[in-house]
Specification:
By secondary structure, the protein is an alpha/beta fold. Helix content is about 25%, strand content about 15%. The structure holds beta-D-glucopyranose.
């Protein structure tokens, strides 16, 4: 592998949730015009690449993860010409572009599904999806006991009596990955975007593509893949899916410098299988995101990720937040062990210590950005944005709210549009009304306010990214050091050390120059709780 083909190994990738990033036409929904205008902001921030959540034509029943046409841009976001101009601008600014690929399911508005529904039971057009007869009297029971990830059964019944599979929303029918049309179509979709200069793909639900051909019941097995390393699950992490990854890799290898990162929510012991040299380049590691604020847990996750990826020639990926989880500035303000998915339903919340969460989020940024491998930042991480947990239920858009029967508020609280300026109506996000309401506190978090404050979280990220580029760019060495419990300490080469105080008492720093800190370090060299430093 040439040096040029390994940009992804240590890239800082900035995740843009397009409809909430910047609105260029005043309709309250972010778009490509808005994003293009903010490319200089991302360059100044110091990231290497942009990953865009799905931008394809979609009825948006699951925020665009329900694709109706994989070769068209949704009109709310712009046109194909806008996408091409955006890629050209990003490249001219030195940024790579990664797009989402959604191969597990289409939208129910996709032509193939419309054709399948119209064709009727038993028709070949239905074989591109998973259509089955039901069980029980008159086939009135779903074909298996599989639940949808969003709540309720994973099967819906059509008026003609057949059931179809949707591991997510009923508007997201699962494709049948043993059908040749599906295999060929996705290779063509990859080429369509590779030919347009796309540098990589984030592959949605990469661990769920292949289903048990015998449609066996879960029968007591967990519907959550990431809780155990068991194999032979009827729909998660099946061995057959690696053949698909290899075919895609062969397509990418026809082009220079391209990559794919799997969203493979699997047990840590199974993840390396996805990043073997002829498969995905990387696979998201969500273990840091799932870890408590605890030095021992962080150290274990880091040690394992570095060793496991090195063993197969890949590099680790670090994620603290994304469009599916509670923002970490809020998560870290809650006691360890709180179920963050249902937490947002009731309020007010005396459990939340927002100031502590904000401090820890800054320290976590210094941990994440000091590690070898890639860091995937979610838009707003650099502003220390909190979760908007008190969105009124009338505005909720995530199918999880309805499918969970109101038990989970869903993921809208981390998808609230970005504040650019301190002013209403929409803090510079749009000239119109933002599609989700932003809380008053967003003014203080705005980019404009933080740019004017040398102690802001944005200023910290900018300094951290510049320093990382200077000191750590091609350095894949790491030694996690044993030390006092509650203190996370790791060393890279050239004497660079990161220390995070994850306990309750201040700790005295070892010798070394402070390169950067989440807090000002005084002459006593004491590092307060919930803070981190880089030493050299
Ligand atoms: C995406 C989610 C989406 C789901 C179904 C995920 O893993 O990140 O946002 O709802 O796949 O496509």
């Amino acid at each position: 592998m040439s040096a040029a083909s390994s940009w992804w190994r240590s890239a800082v990738v900035y995740q843009v949730y397009l409809r909430s990033f910047a609105d260029g036409n005043g309709d309250g929904v972010g778009d490509l015009t808005g994003l293009r205008a903010r490319i200089p902001y991302l360059v100044d921030l110091g990231v290497d690449a942009i990953w865009l959540n799905p931008w394809y034509r979609s009825p948006m029943r699951d925020g665009g993860y329900d694709v109706a046409d994989y070769r068209q841009i949704d009109p709310r976001f712009g046109t194909l010409a806008d996408a091409e101009s955006f890629v050209a601008d990003a490249h001219a600014a030195g940024l790579r572009v990664v797009v989402d690929l959604v191969p597990n399911h289409t939208s129910s508005d996709h032509d193939w599904f419309a054709e399948a529904v119209a064709a009727g039971p038993g028709a070949p057009a239905r074989e591109r999806y998973h259509f089955r007869a039901g069980r029980g009297v008159d086939g009135a029971e779903p074909p298996t006991d599989w639940p949808s990830v969003f709540g309720g059964p994973a099967w819906s019944r059509l008026a003609d009596g057949e059931w179809y599979l949707h591991l997510f929303d009923p508007s997201q029918p699962d494709l049948n990955w043993s059908h040749p049309d599906v295999i060929v179509e996705f290779e063509e979709i990859l080429r369509f975007w590779l030919d347009r200069g796309i540098d990589g793909f984030r592959v949605d639900v990469a661990h769920g593509l292949v289903k048990d051909p015998h449609y066996t019941d879960l029968a007591g097995r967990s519907p959550h893949v990431d809780v155990s390393a068991e194999t032979g699950h009827p729909y998660w992490d099946r061995d057959e899916l690696h053949d698909i990854a290899r075919r895609w890799r062969a397509v990418l290898d026809d082009y220079d410098d391209r990559m794919m990162v799997a969203e493979a929510s699997v047990h840590a012991t199974r993840r390396p299988l996805y990043v073997r040299p002829d498969e995905f380049h990387q696979a998201f590691d969500f273990d840091l995101l799932a870890a408590d604020w605890n030095a021992k847990q962080f150290a274990e996750v880091i040690r394992h990720a570095v060793a496991a990826t090195a063993a197969v020639g890949s590099t680790p990926t670090w994620v603290l937040s994304n469009h599916d989880v509670m923002r970490h500035a809020t998560r870290y303000g809650l006691p360890n062990g709180v179920d963050t998915r249902s937490w947002a339903v009731e309020g007010p919340h005396e459990l939340l210590d927002a100031a502590r969460g904000a401090r820890r989020a800054r320290a976590a940024a210094l941990i994440e950005l000091a590690l070898p491998g890639s860091a995937y930042l979610y838009q707003g991480d650099e502003l220390g944005l909190p979760e908007v947990w008190d969105l009124p239920v009338e505005v909720l858009d995530d199918p999880v709210w309805v499918r969970s029967g109101g038990k989970e508020k869903g993921r809208d609280g981390c998808r609230v549009p970005i504040p650019w300026t301190p002013d209403r109506p929409s803090f510079g996000f749009s000239t119109g009304t933002a599609w989700l309401p932003q809380p008053d506190a967003f003014g203080e978090h705005s980019v404009a306010r933080q740019l004017a404050d040398a102690t802001s979280t944005l200023a910290l990220y900018r300094r951290a990214l510049a320093t990382r580029r200077l000191l750590l760019d091609d350095d894949e060495q790491l030694e996690v050091m044993d030390g006092p419990a509650d203190v996370l300490r790791f060393r890279r080469s050239r004497g660079f050390t990161c220390i995070a105080n994850m306990g309750d008492d201040p700790v005295v720093l070892p010798p070394g120059d402070v390169v950067l800190g989440s807090v000002e370090i005084g002459d006593d060299r004491r590092l307060p709780p919930d803070e981190a430093v880089w030493l050299r």
